[in-house]
Amino acid sequence: MRLYLQLCSLLAVCLWLPFAQAATQGAVGTSSAATVGITLTADLLARIDGLNDILLGAWTGAGNMIGDDDICIGRSGVGFFAAGNYRMRLSGDGDPADVNAFTLSNGVDRIYYDVYFNDQAGLAGRQPVVAGQMLNNQTGLGFFQILNWLFGCVVPNGNVSIVVPESQLQGTTSGNYAGTLTLVLIPD
Question: What CATH code is assigned to 46-187?
Answer without folding.
Answer: 2.60.40
